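hey can u check if this looks right to u? its 680 residues, i copy pasted from the old doc so theres a chance i mangled smth
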Amino acid sequence: MDNYKYLLQDLTKLKGVGNKTATILKRKKINNLFDLLFRLPQSYTDRTQKLKVNELQVGKISTINVVVKKYSFPRIRNLPNKVICEDETGTIDCVFFNSYEGYIRKILPLNKEVTISGKINYFKKRYQITNPNYVSKESSLIEKIHNKYSLTEGISEKVYNKIINQILENLPNLSEWLNPVILNKFENISWRDSIIKLHDPKNIGNFKSNFYRRLVFDEILTSFLVFSEIRKSIKKIKKKNKKFTNKNILAIKKKIAFDLTNDQKKVLNEINYDLASQSKMFRILQGDVGSGKTIVALISALNVIESGYQVAFMAPTEILSNQHYLLAKKIFPKKVKIDLITSKTALKNKKKIQQKTENSNLDMVFGTHSLFQKNMNFSNLGYIIIDEQHKFGVKQRKALSDKGGINCDVLLMSATPIPRTLTMTIYGDMDLSIIREKPNIRKEVKTYSKIDTKINDVIKFVKKEMQSENQIFWVCPLIEESKKIDHQSAIKKYEFLNRIFPDEVAIIHGNIKSNEKEKVLKKFLEKKYKILVSTTIIEVGIDFPNANVIVIENANKFGLSQLHQLRGRVGRGEKQATCILMFKSNLSENAKIRINILKQSNDGFYISEEDMKLRGFGDLLGFKQSGIKNFRLADPIHNQDLFILAEKEIKRIENEEKKLIKYKPLIKLYDQAEIINDLV
């Protein structure tokens, strides 16, 4: 069972791998033998065909049999060593830089036949090979197809192949972990045979083969096994069930101008069921922009407060925290004691709030990360709500769940709709709730595209909207002008618009300090500015009810999902909202497709699916940079069927199998053990 441990050995255990080579590999995040196996060959060099000297072609890698005839070892520093070789058809020089005389004599003994392989050059009317890749008295060692890997500086193709071949020769036979039904789908190929085939040069790029798909499935299954164990470990925690009535829904219904959608009701029932159960809730609520997640979260928070517990509601920015706080203040019964704590809260007030939370004199606190600082203690925390935190990784989420204590339920919310396979990959450790419907009072945002030469038409439209007391977002992709990219910068656009609409235009971007940014957004919210020029930092879910127009410059430079998120900043009120996508005349076909999809649909989930197909899952909304799982082989786009199969298999495992011992090698090998070390 433990023969998998061979693959987890340090690189220095390999013959020919010293500390220097190991350090080079570790810089590329290759830490053990297993990691090496998943650095796939990119192409190959065919050294099987032997040529005569007179058949050689300059610039080609060739293999020849020659006899060593003469040495030339100059006594002047920095000059290369030269060995003259020949066959019956001609002469060739082997030139060596930075090689010792003794080493050359050893590999190329006088009057002996040797096999040499390398790139052919022509110098002073003679063929030559500079620093040959391979030299051997045994031609069978060279006359092969040699894999080309994505190498790191300091490691040659020859050395790399030797290392890989050494591992493959000693590859252990591991006990099969896949059940027979699943294994049959991959024609019963073993893990070991799959790995060997993976490094066979004949199979480079063969992504649809059974061996490749089997390894993809192993990787997906590992990820799902880990998530399953995390879910089970959280569900095992027995808490006091929360007891509440439905009166809070009725009370809030009277204060909001719309009925809850069917999706909102469904999700609220899912959350309430978890709250009322004796198992700890660990749930992600996904909703399209403007779908009404916050209302659902606030109603469930009231239920927790009714049960005698405290609630912490965390948002990524101070302005969003304040917005949630003001909404709660508006719709909550007056008897409910709530407060707001941010970096702007005066020290004196902070201490008061901290004392109140410790003494159970506060029911609910809104804020940013400061909610979970050391000096912030809750006497009876029963519910944590985190808004717009899609960049929380598995470890951070687990730590958050633990922090709240046994009786504390956790709800994460995200206005970033993502495809199902990606949801499984990112949030597989959590129960999932989805809101797709939008409240009836929300009108779909009308989306138009305009070539940038029609800027005057856009200005006329903006002027008309301003006269109707509407506000406008104007989004630019860059902060300053770039010579490499011909985008209009946010700063230049601000200057341009300010000349047309003096004193009515503001600007925010990533280089403005956070407190200044907050001031500008607050003034815009208070209608002191009519136009806000911005980079993409306005994506995060702040409500600007009076903003009904968004102009997005160089829309073709944004991803679909990002454009949808930006568009979601308008249309938060009852008025008709408009999105104008501006672009230059030389659009690519891909850009045309993206813009047309956005014009045709307001469905964030459909848009994210299309975006993933066009851009790849790694680039979607920056998930690649956010600690989200990076698969070695699996791809949520191309391997959707295997994700679905793994999902079904994990349900079978959860229902039928009690222990993970069978899957221990799988989990250990795929480097997931750090998360659930105590479970296997």
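The two ends are 13 Å apart (CA to CA).
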